[in-house]
Design brief:
Strand content: 25-35%
Number of helices: 5
Radius of gyration: 21 Å
Strand order of the largest sheet: 1-2-3
Shape: flat
Low-confidence stretches: none
Distance between the termini: 40 Å
Largest sheet: 3 strands, antiparallel
Order of helices and strands: HEEHHHHE
């Protein structure tokens, strides 16, 4: 397979991936909506076990976070907002949840798991 064909195949697969992700997103929203309407988090549909798991994800505002840091040099440790880095700084007692709470919003996210029975 020549390089041109590899590039073409890569492009075509990326386009297909985008289409698949879009279709999955629509189906996911419809399945989660069905679970919410039924008032269930776990159910069986045909030969499939469906489980919807509600999680809360934190999102941070760069400017508000920078303003809430006790020492501007801490920003160098973050460079850009990364929730894993923030958790590490909290574990190391460099920051506290209270200090960064003005910069944080909690977003509910429902994860969907479908398994064949």
């Amino acid at each position: 397979m020549g390089m041109e064909q590899k590039v073409q195949t890569y492009f075509e697969l990326k386009q297909l991936q985008k289409e698949i992700e879009q279709r999955l997103s629509v189906l996911r929203d419809e399945i989660v909506g069905y679970c919410e309407e039924q008032g269930v988090y776990e159910t069986q549909v045909g030969g499939y076990a469906v489980k919807a798991v509600l999680q809360h994800r934190k999102e941070y505002d760069d400017q508000k976070l920078y303003a809430s840091l006790p020492d501007p040099d801490i920003w160098r440790l973050l460079s850009k907002v990364d929730s894993h880095k923030l958790k590490s700084l909290i574990k190391l007692n460099i920051l506290t949840e209270e200090q960064i709470s003005p910069a944080c919003t909690v977003k509910p996210v429902t994860l969907l798991q479908v398994d064949k029975l």
